[in-house]
Specification:
This protein has no helices and 11 strands. It has strands at about 5, 10-15, 20-25, 35-40, 45-50, 60, 70-75, 80-85, 90-100, 115, 120-125. Strands 2, 4, 5, 6, 9, 10 and 11 form a 7-stranded mixed sheet that branches. The protein has a 4-stranded antiparallel sheet with strand order 1-3-8-7, with no helix packed on it. The mean pLDDT is about 95.
């Protein structure tokens, strides 16, 4: 079974940084395309960032562009979300997800494109 385990969430003040990690195991496809989503109270789940299988292509939501960076370490089967200059509006549960897309340089931007999801990690940013 595919298991995605997020870590790195916590409570920080506005302007500070966090680095989220997502470790994958039991993958049905090697080095899958991965993404990060988040869901705040009273809001729908929204796309945050995506990275292709090769790592050559990335895509960030406008709300986090310039502040967040997505990267991967294939040797560790791990995807990272570096979050800098955090804002209270970033407060949410953050989820990582794995896609079955086969192309090496495609980024997946929508929830239906992801087959497996992690349990989520809470990020809280105080003002």
């Amino acid at each position: 079974q595919v298991l995605l385990a997020e870590s790195g969430g916590g409570l920080v003040q506005a302007g500070e940084s966090l680095r989220l990690s997502c470790a994958a195991s039991g993958l049905t496809i090697s080095r899958p395309a991965m993404g990060w989503f988040r869901q705040a109270p009273g809001k729908e789940r929204e796309f945050v960032a995506a990275i292709s299988r090769s790592g050559a292509s990335t895509y960030l939501a406008d709300s986090v562009k310039g502040r967040f960076t997505i990267s991967r370490d294939n040797a560790k089967n791990t995807v990272y979300l570096q979050m800098n200059n955090l804002e209270p509006e970033d407060t949410a549960i953050y989820y990582c997800a794995s896609s079955s897309v086969s192309a090496e340089n495609v980024v997946v931007l929508t929830s239906p494109g992801y087959a497996y999801w992690g349990q989520g990690t809470q990020v809280t940013v105080s003002s």
